Amino acid sequence: MKAAIKSLPGYQTIRKLWKPKNARQSLLHQMPKNSIGAEIGVDQGSFSQQILEIVKPKKLHLIDPWEYQEEEVYQVARYGAKGGKNQENMNTRYQNVVNKFSAEIASGQIVIHRDYSTNICSHFDDNYFDWIYIDGNHLYEFVKQDLELYYRTVKKGGFITGDDYTEGGWWQGGVKKAVDEFISKGVVRVIWLRDGQFLLKKN
Ligand SMILES: C[S@@+](CC[C@H](N)C(=O)[O-])C[C@H]1O[C@@H](n2cnc3c(N)ncnc32)[C@H](O)[C@@H]1O
Fold first, then answer.
1. Considering the entire predicted model, what is its pTM?
2. How many helices (H) and strands (E) does the chain have?
3. How many CB atoms lie within 10 A of CB 194?
4. pLDDT surpasses 70 at 19
5. What are the residue ranges spanned by the domains of the chain?
């Protein structure tokens, strides 16, 4: 019986919408379809793929320098000694993302910016994005900068979201600290903070 229901046309789509697998997917289901968004911190593009499938954005900006960081503090980060290994490996990840999304890049749906989020921000107009997802450098100062700089670029009523809103981690709770401080400024409304995801709405 279960197998028969699962094989019904449209079942998979309805199931995804009705019962999202986890908080990240649930967050994506809150983003408007056909919207303009950005993912800061792309790595191998696995979440970017989910964005494409769930949000179906009109335009998706993927921002990442794919640069190996040798400092001790980044050792276990995905771009440090253990997670990133070396620059050659980071170059391969970048190239794999370009290959993976070659059709979307060619159509103009995806734009890749190989640079640090702070360098790229000035390229975007005020009130340009419907939503942004912050998942780049997790250290406090960097998340604080991402929140403060990109705030300008998000529409009123748009979403400022991101990952790893937790205590601890190699980033020593930097994401949570920066997000909590940002919330305390009163410029966003908290939709939810759960399972490491933050979902804020610009006032
Ligand atoms: C946790 S991974 C991103 C994972 C991805 N969002 C996902 O869910 O599959 C962090 C990424 O942030 C990138 N990154 C580090 N510093 C950055 C910065 N200042 N601006 C943008 N991206 C940065 C790293 O190169 C790395 O690929």
1. 0.91
2. 9, 7
3. 11
4. no
5. 20-202
